[in-house]
Design brief:
14 helices; globular; mainly alpha; 0% strand; single chain
Length: 283
Amino acid sequence: MRNPAAIAAEPPDALRFRRRLAPLVALRAVWDAREVAFSLAERDLRARYKQAVLGFLWSLASPLSLVLVFTVFFRHVARVDTDGVPYPLFAFLGLLPWSFFSASLSTGGLSLLSNRALLSKVYCPREVFPLAGVGVAAVDTAVSTTALVVMFVVYGFVPGLTALWFPVILLVQLAFTFGVVLLVSVVVVYLRDLRHALPILLQFGLFATPVAYGLDAIPAAYRPLYSALNPLAPVIDGYRRTLVLGLAPRWELLGLAAAGAAVMLVVATLVFQRLEAGIADLV
């Protein structure tokens, strides 16, 4: 039994501090502090391309070089079925969303550690730091999209009315990406080994996601579970179907991807709020 004197010395329930875990409230606070996220993203972009002769054009280097490698290997060796789409265009449509996810995770996932000097000086929701990392990746991806436009012209592809589904697919992609970035950014503060494992996990994820190949390469029996666990797979497939094949997304798989992305975002927000109190003491 507990000591009666110790029980009497405890503060009444009305004075106890209870941290409320409210994902919607947290997301609203992040939206209110969006100007801070914009400023952080602008600072990082200026620092990244400062004194670089090619500037933002460097954001094209990674996806285009991977397209070249994939074209040589997967097209001519592995014989990937692209449903008649030129393989460079097929691969680049997969690399754009993957590059955005990878860059977001590489930058936003380490944002709390790289901004440790600001954490105790700037009053704002700490979620703005990983959000700024996602913003930097978004700018790089937007620049890389110019190469996609050139490919459309070169290969004579014109997106049809099915391209109107693009915002829906993009929303799923953004929700999943921000959820993963948010979760990794706070976990890496407590588990520093994740910082070193992250590049390895991203390399594995590149080949575990249908970037260089199509979603049809995954056995049909496993696609529903695969889509829920890896929402990027139906997202990439949706971009290819709507932009170059003139088909609607596979709604059953995209729906599972949307559910998986929503769960990831909610869980990441709850974990971030739970662990946020100890961030300043550990960074």
